[in-house]
Amino acid sequence: MDLNFKTKSVKINGQNHRILLQNENGPCALLALANVLLLSPNHTRYSCELIRLVNKGSEISLRELIEVLADIGLQVTDKPSTDINELLSLLPRLHEGLNINPQFDGSFENTKEMSLFRLFDVDLVHGWVIDTLTDKAVNEKLSHYSYESAQRILTQVADINSGISKDENSDEILGDAMHLELFFNESPTQLTAFGLLHLRETLPHNTFSILFRNDHFCTLYKYKDQLYTLVTDFGYKNCKDIVWQSLDSVDGSGDAFFAGNFSTAKVDGQQLLTETERNFGTENLLLGEIQQIENDKELAKQLQEQEQERVTKLETKRKNLSHKKKSGIHAPVKKDTVKRRNNLLKTKTSETEKSECIIM
Question: Which branch of life, at top level (predicted)?
């Protein structure tokens, strides 16, 4: 059975638009790409077909969306047909999983998927960036690592400690691994304060892009030096006043909802609950999800307590690490066992823990 995307009418700075809302798989790259094409003035010259599709009704199918995006891809390039067909064959994977490898200097490894985003002239960005302004000797070197290369280093540590592998630069590997592990622990949601600053300073004004964070993708907009993500959670479908969520903090404590004209939006918890019940049925809602919708203040309190607890544990861990021998470095964190943490940070009201949009 073909998957469907619901649609929502929004007004952004006086202009009427229709956007796509995420389904049960969470915010995927396909959804973020489509919404950029729907909203960005720089892409209207070839997004007319997509706009007509989304304006047809309250939902569109995954198949229809992929077909229209493929047509757009053929219109915007002068590459040979064999090359473009190979790129467009990746479109269905935007909904399932991508070979995305973020590098800790703010860039990505140049994979075929990155070429696909370039085809549509849409930037893919992230804020999982190491602060090179402090501890320059260490962090400058670590910034050249990517997620994949960091995992390889952590795997090497296990081999060195077990005696399987002997390397002339074992001390260097062990040192890098210790700092990389600390970096992972300090950025469990794949975003850093330095990364936020990096995005604010490098993204052009009044432009759309796709933000990769916490193994998800969302539509990002920079407006008057501030960063906003498009709210595509289905639970907010009936909340016309909620269009954006600010991206002001790593832990979510400084984030807020905004209307299409970037004025502060009012969050009506009962309206959210009624809309969700009407479309999915109360029996399909977990009690915790309903409470999350109704209690925004309690959520903020929990986030603050969780962040404080994490910082306390991290400081304790740093002290312990400083007294450990190098052979005592933790076992490597394998790529397929990286856990998603801080689920409370997500505005999604009914999301399973396993997302289809993952680092492959």
Answer: Eukaryota
